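Office hours follow-up: a student asked to see two folded examples consecutively, so here they are.
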Amino acid sequence: MAYEVSMIENVTLISLNASPADIGVTAKIFELLASDGIDVDMISQIPPQASSPCISFTVKDEELGKLFAVASRLRELLPEVKLAISSGNSKISVFGAEMKECPGVAAKAFKAISENNIDVRMITTSEADISVLVYAHDGETVYSSLCKAFN
């Protein structure tokens, strides 16, 4: 089966720790981002620890200036949320329509990455895509490993 591997550099990870477990609040967060023209890519929510989930998402590093303006408004709206911003990451994706009916693709990707002892910061998936976020200095290694594993 043919899969494609791609890499996007200069990605910022934003994590909203202790955010309310309320989809309306989540909608408001992403409305604020959209109103400032910030294009969000990867989104992941970790189930609540106690009553508060963690929502993480990525944007291009070039959006940092706009992001800081939104962060200020978020702090006013949700003072209990702890905001963490980390720029200088790389997103590597494996994708292909055949993935939908092929068990084991994630296992193969994760094994290839693990052989290089890489710190994966975030994982998102869909039926036809597995994406990982890693520190920029690990981007080429992960990209090469996944290309070797899938091509």
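And the second, which I mentioned at the end of office hours:
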Amino acid sequence: MALAATMRRGAGAARKAERGGRRWSGRVGTVSTFPPSGLFAARAEEIAATMARPDVSPGGLGAAIRMVTFFANRAGRNLPDARRAELERAKRILQAWRAAAPAPPRPAAPGRYRHATLVPVTVAREGRHWAMRTAPGAPPIALGPDGWRYLVEEPAGGSVRGVGAEPASVPAR
């Protein structure tokens, strides 16, 4: 039995050496979140505050939560327990902010919008989901349900208004 286990391990090591010892997750690039380098070594509060900004996570808090999860999963066993706990705390903070946020506006319609921190974007359906593109042929940026709050419509001949905003004549509650 021990010989069989050794042989299996040897075959796996040979395959790993053959592909360069790198995993697929190391080659993943992101176009939906833009965390600054070194961010995930910070305190949970700083990670959450940075990831919640619309210039870092244009798709909303859901994209921020997924990015923190992806980073923790990609690090795998190499991530120390203390750092993993800090990342989990950052996720919990982001999840609490998302739960406490008012309901996001309903998705409007495909078309041209101005993002709070990006250049004008084109919003369209990509399969079952909404996505933004900063230019034709640019990679899509996933637009989560809470990401619509960062968009302002660019109507053909009118003034710019927020997607979820009420008309100016309605008093604030």
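Two things to take away from it. Strands lie at 111-115, 120-126, 129-133, 141-143, 151-153, 161-162. The chain has a mean pLDDT of 75.
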